[in-house]
Amino acid sequence: MRLCRFDDGRLGVLEGEVIHDVTGALDVLPPCAYPLPQGDPLIANLPAVRERVAALRGGSSHCPLSQVKLLSPVASPGKIVAAPVNYRRHLEEARADAQLNYDKAIDDIQRTGLFLKATSSLVGAGEGVRLWHRDRRNDHEIELVAVIGRVGRDIPRARALEYVAGYSIGLDMTLRGPEERSLRKSADTFSVLGPCLVTAEEIVNPAGLNLRLSVNGQPRQAANTRDLLLGVPELIAFASSFYTLYAGDLLFTGTPEGVGPVVPGDEIVAEMDRIGRMAVRVR
Ligand code: MN
């Protein structure tokens, strides 16, 4: 199932280029009282939501995808976890060089670990990216994002995918400079998620997905998630050895080579096998 959020907070099922409006399924969510529960309520109640979505789908109104404003498919993640550069260099490079880069990259990941992006940076494809420090370089990073489906701590690698609700495409926008990553990557609109949440049963193995990003039609990044140094299971095991993961937490898995600058007026197009395509305006 491909769930999306659009316009003023409506819930949709994406089928091809058509969105079916199933906003009524949000009625199954339990009312919230203070203190708010940890995690994103929709993802925490996803089985019940999906059941209601399936019931509403037949009688739902629909509209073309091109006519809506896409929001982040996850509205309220408790945290946005992100990996630093996490891809093997392309295969055409010399084996010795690849081994060197592999060791260096693993070393980088071990040293950096994972970092967090502010949840207030999260937007959907239709909201676009705004650059706040135009005198400095601002880069795109396309990444596979795993959406955590249920609470877990010290999750073993072999069971990690059982904790994934689904997958989306992410843009980890980055201001270049000397400050901590958590500051440079947390500006408003600097985490883009979309176009939809593809539930996990449609992507049994998140390794093997081609991804590509272009700016104004010019190719910038192209890779396959099989070349992730630490794959989704390893990242979940690593992250959950430090902190509890909650339903709706987002795991940005790192970007391949080819990051480059964007400026106001650019259009970023990000695509990934089995997930889809999203166009994101930069302003
Ligand atoms: Mn990144």
Write the layout of secondary structure elements.
Elements lengths: L1 E5 L3 E6 L2 E4 L19 H4 L1 H12 L4 E3 L5 E2 L8 E3 L12 H18 L2 E3 L4 E3 L13 E3 L1 E7 L15 E9 L1 E2 L5 H4 L6 E9 L10 E6 L2 E7 L7 H9 L9 E3 L7 E2 L5 E6 L3 E6 L2
Parallel strand pairs: 6-16, 8-13
Antiparallel strand pairs: 1-2, 1-5, 1-13, 2-3, 3-4, 6-7, 9-12, 9-17, 10-11, 10-16, 11-13, 14-15, 14-18, 18-19
Structure description:
Helix content is 17%, strand content 31%. By secondary structure, the chain is an alpha+beta fold. The protein has helices spanning 41-44, 46-57, 95-112, 181-184, 232-240; strands at 2-6, 10-15, 18-21, 62-64, 70-71, 80-82, 115-117, 122-124, 138-140, 142-148, 164-172, 174-175, 191-199, 210-215, 218-224, 250-252, 260-261, 267-272, 276-281. Strands 1, 2, 3, 4, 5, 6, 7, 8, 10, 11, 13 and 16 form a 12-stranded mixed beta sheet that branches. It contains 5 helices and 19 strands. A hairpin with a 3-residue loop joins strand 1 (2-6) and strand 2. It is globular. Mean pLDDT is 94; it is low at 90-95. Bound molecules: manganese (II) ion (MN). Residues 82, 141, 143, 172, 252, 254-255 line the site of manganese (II) ion. Manganese (II) ion (MN) is lined by residues 82, 141, 143, 172, 252, 254-255.
